[in-house]
Amino acid sequence: MLDVLDGDFFRRWLTTAAATVDREADRLTELDSAIGDADHGANLRRGFAAVTEALAPRDADHPGAVLVLAGRQLISKVGGASGPLYGTLLRTTGKALGDGAEVSREELAQALRAGVDAVTKLGGATPGDKTMVDALVPAVDALSTSFDAARDAAEQGAEATIPLQARKGRASYLGERSIGHQDPGATSSALLFAALAETAEATR
Amino acid sequence: MSDDTQRVGIVLVSHSAAVATAVADLATGLAGGGGTAPIAAAGGTEDGGLGTSAELISGAAHSVDRGAGVAVLVDLGSAVLTVKALLAEGDELPDGARLVDAPFVEGAVAAVVTASAGGDLDAVAAAAGEAYGYRKE
Question: Boundaries of each PTS EIIA type-4 domain copy (chain B) (predicted)?
Answer without folding.
Answer: 7-137
